[in-house]
Amino acid sequence: MNSEVEKAKNRHFNGVYQELIEIVGYENMIKLHEYYAGQYITFPKRILKESYLHQRIVEEYDGANARDLARKYDYSYSWIMKVLKKYKDND
Known about the structure:
By secondary structure, this protein is mostly helical. It is about 65% helix and about 0% strand.
């Protein structure tokens, strides 16, 4: 690691790095920088894979709770129904 970086106080880091220090700590921020420096990374809004969500929805569906599942998983009712139809069609 660059000795100048080691000497710098948190307030001297660029904005996103200051935020990362607050969220994940200094050492982890350095690891992220070393691994991803120069790249643009984005974090999808959805943290879980769609295939996993489909599985959970199908498992939890009781024939009458599609609206509840839509609220639970933050999807539209129509999206839930498409997932359920896709599963039913594949049976």
